[in-house]
């Protein structure tokens, strides 16, 4: 079945295809968002460019029934939760939408990749350890700046503690070290070493690729850094599919630095939508750990 046919047939579980991105190196997978929007309100988030009221997180209606129907139509390619929201926003504690989906996926033993900034995922260890799963925690910096960058997300330290708990139960896990931002990403070595200490097996990194709305938020929150780095994105960099990219040489330098540290610390490495040949594992996103 072609991706286009599947997109039409499926309700909530869709073929993963971010803007049909030419730079995406993900192996074929599906995408599922238990929530619409995300209340973590990260400054650099791209979902505000295509989801109305994106920072107002709301549950999907009849989620479990719709997921059950969709599952009958797809093969066993991994499902990624989530790419346009966090599957563990604060309301998940009460609503348990993501937990409900995991129970269904677990019964089918469907390979599942979770991407989150929240330690709520620890609650679901009982399910995750019984199914093919991998959890990737997003971290941009361990410093205080994270409270400005990701105002409503649990602290990076709590994410690392959650990673430790998952690894103690033998659940494969890693870090999405993104986005790297000139002027903000000052603690690269710290992040990589802390990830290793917490038990991370893989690190996926990428650079900030602002769109008009995320750049406005960035400029408002970090005016001095924005002023110093604006030309890198808007004059010297490239525009690719609606996003601004730092100059390729600079991205290569930043990501190679991370790669070197990751390999020194005996983890695997991948980059996300960079057009750079730096991956060392069977997947860029950690799905090879499934
Ligand atoms: S956690 Fe992810 S989806 Fe949610 S606001 Fe932050 S970057 Fe966006």
What's the number of domains? 1
Approximately how much helix is present in the residues?
Answer: 25-40%
What proportion strand? Answer: 15-25%
Number of strands: 12
The geometry reads as globular
Mean pLDDT: 96
- Biggest sheet, in brief? 8 strands, mixed
Q: Strands of the largest sheet, in order across it?
A: 1-2-5-6-7-8-9-12
Q: Ligands bound here?
A: iron/sulfur cluster
Label the CATH architecture.
Answer: Alpha-Beta Horseshoe
CATH top level label? Alpha Beta
Rg over C-alpha atoms, rounded to the nearest angstrom? 18 Å
Helix/strand/pairing class, anyone? alpha/beta
Which consecutive residue ranges, at least 5 long each, have pLDDT under 50? none
Characterization of this structure:
Strand 6 (112-116), helix 5 (125-128) and strand 7 (133-139) form a beta-alpha-beta unit. It contains 11 helices and 12 strands. The chain has a single domain, classed as pyruvate-formate lyase- activating enzyme (Alpha-Beta Horseshoe). It is globular. It is an alpha/beta fold and 290 residues long. The strands form 3 sheets. An 8-stranded mixed β-sheet has the order 1-2-5-6-7-8-9-12. The two termini are 24 Å apart. Helix 7 runs parallel beside helix 8 and helix 8 runs parallel beside helix 11.
Summarize this, please?
The chain is α/β, with parallel strands linked by helices and about 290 residues long. The chain has helices spanning about 5-10, 65-70, 90-95, 95-105, 125-130, 145-150, 155-170, 190-200, 210-220, 225-235, 250-265; strands at about 15, 30, 35, 60, 80, 110-115, 135-140, 175-180, 200-205, 240, 245, 270. Bound molecules: iron/sulfur cluster.
